[in-house]
Design goal:
This protein has 332 residues and is an alpha/beta fold. The chain is built from 13 helices and 14 strands. It has helices at 13-27, 43-50, 61-76, 81-87, 126-131, 158-161, 164-170, 186-197, 209-220, 228-231, 271-278, 288-295, 319-327, and strands spanning 2-8, 33-37, 55-57, 111-115, 119-121, 138-139, 176-180, 226-227, 248-250, 253-256, 259-260, 263-265, 283-284, 311-312. The radius of gyration is 20 Å and the shape is globular.
């Protein structure tokens, strides 16, 4: 069975609803979806998932524990990661819950497309599932242009482990990728840990831990990545990130030079911005109205109504806000 997966907890409640609604509109109400729990803070999303017959909350605790243990072992092998995370006041393992997307390699789908909770589907993905007939890994992004967010490019080991051509063509963003169940056997996982412990862990980039480790696992295991951004004819390639200012919105779908996006990734916008927006704070970011449309698809009467000009979500606080915050009255 094919399906779409994502990762969530109550901190991304509004984003999850928007994503699920976009999948329903674009791919159809019968597309199976599995949500992996980032942590135990899932009361709100569990209630929402229970309303949707095609959506399930992953509950295999043994699978989750196995991957948590694997990830801890992988990062324990890194020469500086735990110290770096401690310096910036992060928990022992930074964003450990992000790695729970790896549970998709266990269940419930034979073939899956993983989408981050801060994405929206804009176009049917039947072509991506079709590509899995002849490929084990399919992506559609431009992360290969910025390898410094995947690997430690200062490490002399990097080019000893992966040839430059592979780094230029195989790196991907962990916000969306398609793959298959059981692609990493227990034997493969043990071999990968052995390589990391033998010194290869130093090429990992600790500040994007799930993305870095997943790229390493895929590339080191010899799995070839089919990237639509490198394979499609130039006039058919679209962008996918909110950082691109030129997309056009037509009937709640985004287009790039008249080509329909496959998905939009609101990368870099903090989850709390979406929460504040949905609570009625008039915050602005690119393609905000598209997000609000899908978020309130089934409850348009609850959609916030704004009268004044919105303020950028990352604008510095006003003098009044600073005073109120100092006095303990403002928490925005």
């Amino acid at each position: 069975m094919d399906g779409i997966c994502t990762l969530a907890n109550d901190a991304v409640y509004d984003q999850l609803i928007a994503l699920l609604n976009s999948i329903e509109v674009i791919q159809g109400q019968n597309m199976p979806v599995c949500v992996y729990p980032y942590d135990d803070n899932i009361e709100k999303i569990a209630a929402e998932i229970a309303k949707r017959p095609n959506v399930q909350l992953y509950a295999d605790k043994e699978s989750i524990q196995r991957w948590d243990d694997f990830v801890r072992s992988a990062w324990d092998a890194h020469p500086t990661a735990l110290q770096e995370w401690r310096k910036i006041g992060k928990e022992t393992y930074y964003r450990l819950g992000c790695h729970r997307r790896f549970c998709a390699f266990d269940a419930p789908f034979e073939r899956f497309i993983y989408m981050d909770a801060d994405t929206l589907l804009m176009k049917p993905v039947d072509n991506i599932f079709s590509l899995l007939d002849s490929n084990d890994w399919v992506v559609y992004d431009f992360q290969h242009k910025e390898p410094m967010y995947v690997y430690n490019i200062a490490s002399p080991k990097l080019l000893e482990i992966f040839p430059l051509e592979k780094i230029q063509t195989q790196i991907f963003c962990s916000g969306l990728y398609a793959s298959k169940k059981n692609i990493f056997s227990q034997e493969t996982k043990e071999w990968l840990l052995a390589r990391l412990r033998a010194g290869e862990a130093e090429i990992l980039y600790p500040m994007a831990p799930d993305q870095s480790l997943l790229n390493y696992m895929m590339m080191r295991a010899g799995i070839l990545c089919y990237n639509l951004a490198l394979k499609l004819p130039p006039d058919e390639i679209t962008g996918c990130c909110v950082t691109s200012p030129h997309f056009e919105e037509r009937e709640n779908i985004l287009y790039d030079k008249n080509q329909r996006l496959t998905y939009i990734h609101y990368i870099g916008i903090p989850a709390k911005v979406f929460t504040r927006l949905c609570a009625g704070e008039n915050l602005d970011f690119r393609y905000r109205d598209v997000f609000l449309y899908y978020r309130y698809l089934h409850e348009p009467e609850k959609k916030p109504k704004f009268k004044n000009k919105p303020k950028p979500y990352d604008a510095p606080p006003s003098f009044i806000e600073r005073v109120l915050r100092k006095l303990g009255f403002f928490h925005g």
